[in-house]
Amino acid sequence: MSSPGSAPRLVALVLSTLVLLGLVCAPASAAPVPAKPLGNLYVCVRDTTRVMSFAWSVTVCPRGSTKFVLLVAARPGAAGPRGATGATGAVGPQGPTGPTGAIGATGPAGPTGPTGLTGLTGATGPTGPTGATGDVGPQGPIGATGDVGPQGPTGATGAQGTQGTQGLAGSTGSTGATGATGATGAAGATGAAGPQGPQGPTGPQGPAGLPPVWDNGTTTVSFTGTGFTPTVLSTTRTYVDAASGVTSANFALAAHEVSTDGTIASVGLSFTTPPTGSLSVQLFLNGVANGASCTITGGATSCAAVVGVPVVVGDQVAIGVRRSTGTETLTPAQSSATEVVEGGAALVAGPHLVASYTKFTNTTEAVVQLGTGAEFTSAATYICTVTGADQPGVVYSVTNTGGSSFTVNASTTTSDRVNYVCVGR
């Protein structure tokens, strides 16, 4: 800071300087000229020595100096040519938002709005408590006399009065109206039977019935084995136990013992897939081939041979199978043998007979369904026989599957027509 009295000295010093520079005044003979600002003159004064320094553009004085700003004007010269209009300056930044204005006066009231919709009816309130019983009102006036009531019942008959004197005979009265017809009476009892009428004429004779049918007492024992293991079949014979499915190249290991006297009616084998070669199937009794054989070939998977070989208790039976050429591993699906056991004969009650035919369609089985009235009681109460009609050399057998159906089996694939006759009850 400068001491008091330094400012006047500073101003005098500045004015002296300006006079020396010729910037403050001009010769008296010169016409007065308006002063023209030359800019800001900055004066820095050292605080300790009071030494001044001048500069046109200094904005900051050295440390330890005080800055003074003086406006310096000079006499203007002649007017120069008009300068070109400068380019429009860039739009300045948006100023800050002004303060919120005062709240305006309240406007006039608006018109009344339309009437609102009628509200929904409220729920019915709970029933109020029963009011107290009112006082008994005054007695009303006596009502008018009512109509005369109906006549009462007739009174009891009075006591017989004394007989009066006979009066004069009166005139005859008119005939009264006819009374209503009475209700019909109950039916009378049934009368006695009349005499027998004469005998009518003899009716026509009915058709002849079946002759007596006798059951020879035969029973069928079936030996069936399933699920035995895949077997390598070759030109060497393999034996199969029809009852268990055991296979062996040794007859004694595959045979089973017959438990009843009778006849082996048929034997057969079936496989899950057709063999590629030809297989011969035959019954072996006590190690020896017996009866007819059948062949599985041409895409067939099974065959059955009708053999009719008698057997007794203790006989050993097995099924032999052998390929014609080569070897092949096959999985047997089923082995079977049927034994017919004969017994005492008995007359069949109420028998009937069914005869017709059925047709194979390139298969080894044909199922026959018996129509209404032709059925038998069960699979065990009838027997059927079949014969081929078109294709010789095929052996057929019958399996009863129920009282209303049976299956005809062929020894090989065929399209033959077969005739059948079934009898039983």
Reading the helices and strands in chain order gives: HEEEEEEEEHEEEEEEEEEEEEEEE
> Largest sheet, if any?
6 strands, antiparallel
* Helical content (DSSP H or I, runs of 4+): under 10%
Number of strands: 23
Q: What percent of residues are in strands?
A: 35-45%
Quaternary arrangement of the chains shown? single chain
Structural class: mainly beta
End-to-end gap: 152 Å
Low-confidence stretches: 1-5, 17-33
Mean pLDDT: 76
Radius of gyration: 73 Å
- Please state the overall shape, judged from the principal axes of the Cα atoms: flat
If helices are DSSP runs of H or I spanning 4 or more residues, what is the number of helices? 2
Write the layout of secondary structure elements.
Blueprint: H1 6-21, E1 36-46, E2 52-55, E3 65-74, E4 214-215, E5 219-226, E6 231-233, E7 238-240, E8 247-248, H2 251-254, E9 256-257, E10 262-271, E11 279-285, E12 288-296, E13 302-311, E14 316-323, E15 328-330, E16 332-341, E17 346-347, E18 352-359, E19 363-369, E20 382-388, E21 396-402, E22 405-414, E23 417-424
